[in-house]
Amino acid sequence: MISTLHIKNIGIIEDLNIDLNKGLNVLTGETGAGKTLIIDSLEIISGGRFSKDMIRRGASNSFVEICMYVPESEKAEDGNIIVSREITSSGKNMCKINGRMVTVNELREFMKEFIEIHGQNDNQNLLDSKKHLSYLDSYSGEKIASLKEEYINYYSEYKNILKELKDNLGDEKEKQRKIDLLQYQINEIEEADLKLNEEDELEEQRRVMQNSEKISDSLNTANNLIEENGIDNISMAIRALEKIETIDKKYEEASSSLKNIYYELQEIARDISSYKDDTYFDEEERNNVEERVDLIHSLKRKYGNTIEEILQYKDEIKEELEKIENLEEYNMKLRKRRDELTEKLNLLAKKMHEIRITSSNKLVSDINKELEDLEMKNAKINIKVDYVEDDFFKEGKDIVKFYIITNVGEDEKELSKIASGGEMSRIMLAIKKVLAEFDNTDVLIFDEIDTGISGKAANSVANKLKAISKKHQVLCISHLPNIAAMADYNYFISKNIIEDRTKTQIKLLKETEVIEEIARISSGEVNEVTLKYARELRNKKAS
Fold first, then answer.
1. What is the 3-state secondary structure (H, E, C) of 256-303?
2. Which CATH superfamily is domain 1-123+422-509 in?
3. pTM given for the model
């Protein structure tokens, strides 16, 4: 249930806190006092549309927040759920559920579980044909519950098997396509005969080829300088030092060092000479290296960033290919189980269809009786249960939709196609009265449910709202004394001018004030006659 509603800067509402209670909460007040703005605020916090024109003049944002007490819900912390939505004049939305930011769509889906609004602009679940099946099944009760539970268990296994067959390539065409692809990839990698570190060696070889002329010229220059001047000059220097090496040990050491350099230089000269032989490449060699490098780059684009990754990928797809080729026996078992489940699901779906047909006829009869009580004698509800042969749904093979004829001689239409407003609210009231025992929605909100009714119909609406409020928290805006008299809690909405601005205010009425308010809305005046009438209505509620 909603324990507190906080509204700020919406229309003539500046800052309003409403503490609500269990049972039937009725809001009354003069026209234009802000009653509809309260319903609008509940629609906003339920994820409904918001117009920037609704922001109070001079304010930069609007804010709606509710605290719901739902002790049995897993989504509630300590039984409380706090939901807020702030909208700025620039159009920015900030929605939160227990402090966690969510999108408007997430907010809408979340709130559908707790609040239903039935009024001029919104009849959420009634207009949602996806909910019609759950309405019918709730009414069917235990007759269908066990079958449905069994069906859902089989359906879950059935869907898992279909997915596994798809993943396991249980489809023969898909399987062959996958085998062909894997075999092609394996052959392409194996034919390349890749070697680890091969790419580095090829790249180095290619760099040498691309710079072969420059390398050859440099090697020739170095070799000529060493052989023509370097070795001969060092040789003559050694002979000169040999003449004095006996005179002092330092001359002997210098001579020895120079001899080492001489031998090293000879070795370097031989290496440079051999390098020159490696710098010649014919055109075929160049082409072979370029083609090999291109092949490796092509394989890297397809199968991995390195040769090691490509070879690892080859091993993986070899294992996958072997697995696919050995899957047929396992897939045959899955197909057999799928066929068994199909038979079971068809049998259960047929039984549920028969129950739904029987229950729908009784539910139609019960709802139409309620509509008669609500002075909608010409309105006739019909429920169509269409059995779909070629498909399974999560809860059977039925598509359930509510239809209605609102006036004699008119065509039958889907419930979602008729006009909303007081008429729709009363239809919803009739359905909710029949289903009150089974419906799990915590809060039901009715706006303008009393439009165009009086007398017997008004009493009937009041009695039905009271009956529903035994199982749900009900909020109702009303102009009828019959409904106000039936309330467990009465709230008076008024507007006052404070500091040159109109502001909405709300007050929870005491019993004497309730009698006076019932008298006021019954005739527009409070006098002995209307007070007596108000007490009589209130006594009916007590009895």
1. HHHHHHHHHHHHHHHHHHHHHHCCCCCHHHHHHHHHHHHHHHHHHHHH
2. P-loop containing nucleotide triphosphate hydrolases (3.40.50.300)
3. 0.62
